[in-house]
Specification:
Helix 4 runs parallel beside helix 5. About 40% of the residues are buried. The protein starts with 5 loop residues before the first helix and ends in a 14-residue tail after the last helix. The protein is mainly β. It has a 6-stranded mixed β-sheet with strand order 10-11-12-13-19-18, with no helix packed on it. Helix content is about 10%, strand content about 40%. This is F-box only protein 11.
């Protein structure tokens, strides 16, 4: 074997499995170099996981040195191998001790290993380093925080914060300062009915979505606003309103919103909401609008629009077009839930909406046909939170567990090890981490980037009945 050339050894290694390649890499330094050749790991990755890659540009964005890491990462998702750890605040002052449940978790975009978390009725946003597993900064706001979202690309250093005080803020976590504070609704519609004092105000900004230079905000009464952010080279930010979309769902319990940009620079804003119609009976709706600048291009299914009188929007009134109402048409019976809906999530492709119910199930709704694709069974407590990407769903429940599901087949692929001590209240994830918060304020991180030979040696890669898994 010592007399064989590198080319012949690599050809022999190409016939081996991942486990055998890792064993060969321990023989000597030459074999270690050859067994880690990126061509070998790229071939293994494509052979095992190509059927799960739906993005045609995926392979163009992978560096040669990443193939082994990506192979192990994807393999860990299938086999359930991960490292779980709880996050702990770096310091605890009387003002920062928060034992209330976690209501919002967001992982940064653009490859940054940052996490933002918000506790119930809190005016603080905690920023965490997912590498060091600690809190490194606390952002203090003027009122209770309803939601946060990291930017992407052109807004990659920005954090959008929605407040109960009918405002949203833009915080620069690189400069560690606020760049913008803006009133969301300048005029309150008289049609809004008063809400229970125990619930957020009807003007509270409960969801924000920051994508490049566009920001979508939505209140608890389902008033959606799309803002154009102007970011100059010095980092200063100004904004003006592009569109105001009103769904008039006065008893909306939960909702989700998503901004998306098409390759031809056409944008869409999608919103899903669950409106309580009768006691223990919810109507689930999905609406979408495509626009380019201030021009509306088309309206998605189930939406009726009508012009309404222009409202005064302060210094933005000259640039803000007339708002319009979006009223959901009669829904098919399948878009209703006979049990209360506790959470909603829109998939990145906007073709599927997931809803968690109090009857311990998760429903997958097709936004085009308004029919239910799957009902997911597995939790033994009410499903309180879900998150979804192009392939999988992560859910949390009052049974204190976090589960991973296939978006394609609806099968439960994994129950994450290490239960919470109380009911799970919030989940988020990306390719490397699953992060969840519970009712006691604890945050757990499941890290799937575990590079271990022992894991590869016991690896059970997908085959046969696992063909439909969506990872």
């Amino acid at each position: 074997m010592e007399k064989l050339s590198d080319e012949i050894l690599v050809r022999i290694f190409s016939l081996l499995s991942a486990q055998d390649l890792c064993r060969c890499s321990q023989v000597c330094s030459v074999w270690c170099r050859l067994a880690n050749d990126f061509h070998l790991w790229k071939k293994l990755f494509i052979k095992s996981f190509d059927k799960f890659i739906l993005d045609p540009l995926y392979y163009n964005n992978v560096f040669p040195t990443q193939w082994k890491e990506l192979f192990i990462l994807r393999s860990n998702w299938f086999s359930g191998h991960c490292h779980v750890q709880s996050l702990h605040k770096k310091t605890r002052t009387p003002q920062q001790i928060e034992l209330t449940k976690v209501v919002c978790l967001k992982i940064s975009n653009c490859g940054r290993s940052l996490l933002a978390s918000v506790n119930q009725h809190s005016k603080l946003v905690h920023l965490w380093s997912l590498i060091q597993k600690r809190s490194f900064y606390v952002v203090s706001c003027e009122s209770v925080i309803g939601c946060v979202d990291f930017g992407s690309e052109r807004s990659r250093n920005l954090l959008a914060i929605g407040l109960y005080s009918n405002k949203f803020c833009i915080w620069d976590f690189q400069r560690e300062r606020f760049l913008l504070s803006k009133t969301n609704l300048s005029e309150i519609c008289r049609d809004f009915a008063p809400r229970d004092n125990s619930l957020p105000p009807h003007t509270a900004v409960c969801r924000v979505n920051l994508v490049d230079n566009k920001l979508a905000t939505v209140t608890t009464q389902c008033v959606v606003k799309v803002w154009q952010l102007d970011i100059n080279q010095s980092g200063q930010v100004s904004c003006h309103c592009l569109h105001t979309l009103t769904t008039f769902k006065p008893r909306c319990s939960v909702l989700d919103i998503q901004l998306k940009r098409d390759p031809d620079d056409v944008w869409s804003v999608s919103i899903s909401h669950a409106a309580e119609v009768l006691e223990n009976w919810n109507l689930i709706g999905f609406q979408a609008v495509r626009f380019q600048g201030q021009s509306l291009l088309d309206i998605g299914p189930g939406v009726h629009t009508e012009d309404v009188e222009r409202v005064d929007d302060g210094d933005d009134c000259n640039s803000c077009p007339s708002p319009f109402r979006m009223q959901m048409l009669s829904q098919k019976e399948q878009m209703s839930s006979r049990t209360p809906v506790s959470c909603l999530s829109i998939s990145p492709c906007t073709k599927v909406v997931t809803s968690g119910q109090n009857d311990n199930t998760i429903s997958l709704w097709d936004t085009a046909t308004q029919c239910r694709r799957h009902i997911l069974f597995g939790h033994t407590g009410a499903v309180t939170c879900t998150d979804v990407d192009m392939h999988k769903i992560v859910s949390g429940s009052n049974d204190r567990t976090v589960k991973v599901w296939s978006l394609e087949s609806g099968d439960c692929q994994l129950t994450l090890p290490g239960d919470h001590t109380s009911g799970v209240s919030c989940v988020t994830f990306n390719d490397q981490w699953v992060i969840s918060g519970d009712n006691s304020g604890e945050i757990k991180v499941w890290d799937f980037a575990v590079n271990s030979l022992s894991i590869l040696q016991s690896l059970d890669l997908p085959s046969g009945t696992h063909q439909q898994q969506g990872f």
